[in-house]
Amino acid sequence: MKVIYDKNYKVFFGTDVLSHLAQTLIDKAYSRVFVLVDENTEKYCLPILKPYLENFSLIKILSGEQNKNLATASIIWNELQQNLANRNTVLLNLGGGTLSDLGGYCASTYKRGIDFINIPTTLLSMVDASIGGKQGVDLNSYKNLIGVFKHPEQVFIYPQFIDTLMVSEQRNGLSEIVKHALIDDKKFFEKILSTPEINYTQLDKWIEKSAKIKIQIVNKDPHEKGLRKVLNFGHTIGHAVETFSLMTDSKPLKHGEAVAIGIICESFLSFKTMKLDGDDFEKIIKVITSNFEKYFSSWNIDELLKIMQNDKKNNNSEINFTLLKKIGKPVIDCNCTSELIIESLDFYKNVAYKHL
Ligand SMILES: NC(=O)c1ccc[n+]([C@@H]2O[C@H](COP(=O)([O-])OP(=O)(O)OC[C@H]3O[C@@H](n4cnc5c(N)ncnc54)[C@H](O)[C@@H]3O)[C@@H](O)[C@H]2O)c1
What we know:
Blueprint: E1 2-6, E2 10-13, H1 17-28, E3 32-38, H2 39-44, H3 46-49, E4 57-61, H4 70-82, E5 89-95, H5 97-109, E6 115-120, H6 123-129, E7 134-139, E8 142-149, E9 154-157, H7 167-184, H8 186-193, H9 204-220, H10 235-248, H11 255-273, H12 278-291, H13 301-309, E10 321-326, E11 329-334, H14 338-350
Parallel strand pairs: 2-9, 3-4, 3-5, 5-6, 6-9
Antiparallel strand pairs: 1-2, 7-8, 10-11
């Protein structure tokens, strides 16, 4: 087992983390242990976790971003209250980023805050959502509008959980790995670029590297006053297309798929306004187009711009972007004209993908 972070909370990584989790629960002498699952993590992940737990109460919610809202939060709060959760209770979030955002938010607000421990079960949550201390829910499909900053007590990353993920969900996590490489580490990006067929069950090194990049950045600016905004690369347009898809598609885009689109569009903006090198721009396009599937949508551009204007990352009426002047050199607080944003979305529409 590796300890990949050890300051105000701990992040453990490896095949033997679950026995350490069991010991932690004993050491902390919690009065009650609750485990939050969705229908998939109940089926695939709970049987792996169960042998390490003594007594626990199960709270089950429905999976999917469309359920990351206050109605589901109410279900969790009610379950906690009806099962007599007190301040010495811990909530174990066994799931992907949707579940840990919800569970973390509910734990942080129930009785003014009880402990929660994240046990991420998707690639995306291992490298991103389970660490960093942002907890929250969507409001009217607008992403993460209600939430708090609060770190988990501990995070246990057990990489084998990825084995039961659908391929589309494995790919979903790649976009945040690519983003971390693009904002911090050109060599890491080149490594991803030079890997033609990614084996998602052998990604331990990338998971560790990617999680460490996020942790380092969050450590320097936990409340996103400045530096942490670099993590938003790909997320202004990414969140807008994700929100639009949630509002209009019967099978909405996944977060990571939306971020992959955002990475293409915001690299285009970087190329046009920050002098991002043309070769590097093409390399970014190549990584995304060879690992993701193309998304075809009849976007309503006015609606997308409206969603971006309502983004919580904006400080004034301007839409706020993090862009790249080089790979590994992000620039925060950039603004672009509506015309250029529309051009970037048109660029996405015309870009050729390997898997059409
Ligand atoms: N808080 C943060 O800092 C942060 C950062 C990035 C993303 N996020 C949020 O994370 C969410 C996306 O998270 P996600 O991509 O993990 O999706 P997810 O949590 O919705 O999980 C994706 C699907 O995989 C299933 N699943 C989970 N683990 C499984 C397993 N081991 N085997 C089989 N199926 C499994 C889930 O039930 C779900 O159907 C978004 O809401 C996004 O906003 C938060």
